[in-house]
Amino acid sequence: MNKLLLTVFATLVASVTTASAFAQDIKGDAQAGEKKIALCIGCHGIVGYQASFPEVHKVPKISGQGAKYIASALNAYKKGERKHPTMRGIADSLTEQDIADVAAYYEASGVVAGATAPGKAADGSSKAMELVTKGACTSCHGDSFSKPLDPTYPKIAGQHSDYLFVALKAYKTESNPMVGRGNAIMGGVAKQFSNAELKVLADYMGSLPGELKTVPQAKFK
């Protein structure tokens, strides 16, 4: 990672820490969240469900994901920092308390008490490891890719690789009212790579053992 990117990274970590402290004022209730996920389960409650926008890909696994990351992502859709019409419409319908409750629900969903957290990720191909090093991926997502440096960053180990690929490309997209993600850290990382290299990264991270799941809801089992 070059010096400019490291400077941006350090600045935004400080900003995220401040935002995280502010967000702690709103406490999520997982039981309340279970009653608020009707708009979520039609995609995230079906194993293998595929979205068709902006291209065909599996929707992300969000059960077991960190609550602060889920809340951060929903707020980014709500603010338009993440450009996805469906997700923005859903996020716009949620209050800050709703977001906190839904996030708390999904953080607890599918978690097995006493389960061992994934250890340091096994190496992938030499090309994959070269790209991981170039992007300094473990500096944010941890050496297991399941224990991020800041709780507003996602767990990515074991996430659907096709979703990861679409998400990474979104950080490179600019001046598109329907697609794109505004995040200086991830934008700086993703723009270093060709799409072919992003696919190698996505395939590697998706192949790793992780804590993320899709937990089927009763109506979709």
Fold and architecture overview:
With 221 residues, the chain is mainly alpha-helical. It contains eleven helices and four strands. It has helices at 3-23, 30-34, 38-44, 67-79, 85-92, 96-108, 126-135, 138-141, 161-170, 184-190, 195-206; strands spanning 50-51, 57-58, 82-83, 180-181. It has a two-stranded antiparallel sheet with strand order 1-2. Helix 1 (3-23) packs antiparallel against helix 10, helix 4 crosses helix 5 (85-92) and helix 7 (126-135) crosses helix 11 (195-206). The longest helix has 21 residues, at 3-23.
Query: Which ranges are low-confidence, i.e. pLDDT below 50, for 5 or more consecutive residues?
Result: 3-23
Count of distinct structural domains? 1
Strand content: under 5%
Q: Could you give the order of strands across the largest sheet?
A: 1-2
Helix content estimate: 40-55%
Distance between the termini: 44 Å
CATH topology: Cytochrome Bc1 Complex, Chain D, domain 2
Q: How would you summarize what this structure contains?
A:
Helix content is 50%, strand content 4%. With 221 residues, the chain is mainly α. Mean pLDDT is 91; it is low at 3-23.
Question: Layout of SSEs?
Answer:
Elements: H1 3-23, H2 30-34, H3 38-44, E1 50-51, E2 57-58, H4 67-79, E3 82-83, H5 85-92, H6 96-108, H7 126-135, H8 138-141, H9 161-170, E4 180-181, H10 184-190, H11 195-206
Helix pairs in contact: 1-10, 4-5, 4-6, 7-11, 9-11
